[in-house]
């Protein structure tokens, strides 16, 4: 695996390579690694001096969980579905961070460029500057199928 773009991507590549090295022998033996929840029901958020939750820090909305779920979809993923989704997301991230072929042909000119529009639709060099996430959002210990967990009028 070749990782040499940015510290955040390098950190992710190291984590992915480490996970592959640790989980590789288990997967090769056909045994599923035990799943550990990242949710702690006893977690207490830090508080400010006036007692409100301290929301300072770096926030992100990076997740592979869609904002809204499809009409026919259950509100919670199974852990097997989470493993499949997160595995595909990691594989996609590793592939998109690979070095591009410097000898590749130019992408075709998009019609919007011919009309003088911005962007041209030719895409980017690779996915190194795009962080689409690799994890499903977990709310109250449940891997949710959407970020909106209780819209008005819904049973969930």
Verbal overview:
It is a single chain. The protein is mostly helical. The protein has a domain of 71 residues. The chain contains 3 helices and 2 strands. A two-stranded antiparallel sheet has the order 1-2. The longest helix has 22 residues. The chain starts with 6 loop residues before the first helix and ends in a 13-residue tail after the last strand.
Helices and strands, with pairings:
Elements: H1 7-28, H2 79-96, H3 111-114, E1 138-139, E2 142-143
Antiparallel strand pairs: 1-2
Query: Biggest sheet: strands side by side, in what order?
Result: 1-2
What's the alpha carbon Rg, rounded to whole Å?
20 Å
Amino- and carboxy-terminal Cα gap: 42 Å
Unreliable residue stretches: 1-7, 22-31
Keywords:
156 residues, 3 helices, extended, disordered N terminus
Question: Briefly, what is this?
Answer:
It is built from three helices and two strands, in the order αααββ.
């Amino acid at each position: 695996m070749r990782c040499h773009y940015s510290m955040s991507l390098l950190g992710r590549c190291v984590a992915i390579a480490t996970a592959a090295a640790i989980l590789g022998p288990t997967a090769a033996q056909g045994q599923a690694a035990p799943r550990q929840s990242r949710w702690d029901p006893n977690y207490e958020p830090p508080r400010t001096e006036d007692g409100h939750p301290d929301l300072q820090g770096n926030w992100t909305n990076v997740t592979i969980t869609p904002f809204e779920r499809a009409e026919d979809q259950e509100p919670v993923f199974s852990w097997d579905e989470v493993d499949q989704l997160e595995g595909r997301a990691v594989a996609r991230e590793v592939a998109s961070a690979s070095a591009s072929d410097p000898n590749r042909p130019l992408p075709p000119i998009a019609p919007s460029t011919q009309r003088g529009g911005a962007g041209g639709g030719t895409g980017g060099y690779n996915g190194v500057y795009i962080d689409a996430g690799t994890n499903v959002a977990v709310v109250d210990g449940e891997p949710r199928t959407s970020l909106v967990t209780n819209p008005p009028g819904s049973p969930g």
